[in-house]
Specification:
Elements (H helix, E strand, L loop, with lengths): L5 E4 L3 E5 L5 E6 L2 E4 L4 E4 L3 H18 L6 E4 L4 E5 L2 E2 L2 E8 L2 H7 L6 E11 L8 E2 L1 H6 L5 H23 L3 E15 L2 E7 L7 E5 L9 H4 L5 H11 L18
Antiparallel strand pairs: 1-2, 2-3, 3-7, 4-5, 6-7, 8-12, 9-10, 9-12, 10-11, 12-13, 12-14
Helix pairs in contact: 1-6
Bound molecules: guanosine-5'-monophosphate.
The site of guanosine-5'-monophosphate has 15 residues, from strand 9, helix 2, strand 12 and strand 14.
EC number: 6.3.2.6
GO biological process, one term: cobalamin biosynthetic process
Pathway: Purine metabolism; IMP biosynthesis via de novo pathway; 5-amino-1-(5-phospho-D-ribosyl)imidazole-4-carboxamide from 5-amino-1-(5-phospho-D-ribosyl)imidazole-4-carboxylate: step 1/2
Length: 253
């Protein structure tokens, strides 16, 4: 049997050549890493949950007209996506202070920010994804000023959408990271949301209790990561109400 071609393997996902030109298959692994892979574990069921959650968010974005790479889910761990030229940036949007912003500015976690703040990190594991300014982005040719305007606009639309979807189920969207890619239509280039949107790349706090429901549970040893992700999926209606990851995640539809 012919083996499909692996295009790229990252910390949490693998990309394979897709069935048609211009497509990839994105496989979600159970591996969890933090602090630039210095902390590692395998969390059974995480890949299944993130595949389904990313599908849920990307489809929602499609439904409100925000272009993204998602085409369709193939199975429990795989989805068909559009091939893009990834811009080598992590685009981070923050609504409340947390994580590296709190550390950098000595600001208490949970402090509301005056407005959503968009920032960039250069995607480079060896360097630990350093924060970079727009000046760096343009000077080094990763994106031009028009691209940056489009990236900010995409990031803020994703922020408004996700903030509303999470708030409706009692979850505060503290911050998140997206990646953006280029697609070409003849000579015309468009920027679309790529990679994944899941609790791996967001900070999610329960509105009432403040309980963390995201990868900080793993980063900071706060309990069972798959339990936290299952809770997010259950609230969003992606998992049946009574299911836990221990019985293996069961998908609705
Ligand atoms: P911070 O800069 O505070 O560490 O992260 C800000 C937000 O971006 C958090 O929601 C965090 O999960 C996300 N983020 C930052 N870097 C990465 C990364 O390398 N991978 C993932 N999955 N998310 C990241």
């Amino acid at each position: 049997m012919a083996r499909r071609k692996k295009i790229y393997e990252g910390k949490a996902k693998i990309l394979y050549e897709g069935p048609e030109p211009g497509t990839f298959v994105q496989y979600f692994k159970d591996d969890a890493t933090a602090f630039n892979a210095q902390k590692k574990d395998v969390i059974e069921g995480k890949g299944v949950l993130n595949n389904r959650l990313s599908e849920f968010f990307m489809q929602g974005l499609t439904n409100i007209g925000v272009p993204n790479h998602f085409i369709r889910r193939i199975n429990m761990r795989e989805q068909l996506i559009r091939q893009v030229e990834i811009i080598p940036l992590e685009v981070i949007v923050r609504n409340f202070a947390a994580g590296s912003l709190s550390k950098r500015l000595g600001m208490e976690e949970g402090t509301a920010l005056p407005r959503p703040i968009v920032e960039y990190s250069y995607k480079n594991d060896a360097l630990g994804d350093p924060m970079v300014s727009e000046e760096y982005v343009v000077a080094f040719g990763w994106a031009n000023q028009q691209d940056l305007d489009d990236i900010v606009s995409l990031a803020l639309r994703v922020n408004d959408f996700l903030s509303g979807v999470f708030y409706a189920v009692g979850i505060k969207l503290v911050d998140f990271k997206i990646e953006v890619g280029r697609i070409w239509d003849g000579d015309f280039m468009r920027l679309i949301v790529a990679d994944e949107i899941s609790p791996d790349s967001c900070r999610l706090w329960d509105v009432k209790s403040g309980r963390k429901l995201d990868k900080d549970v793993f980063r900071r040893d706060l309990g069972d990561l798959a339990d936290a992700y299952s809770e997010v999926a259950r609230r969003l209606g992606v998992l049946p109400a009574q299911t836990t990851h221990l019985t293996k995640p069961t998908l609705i539809n």
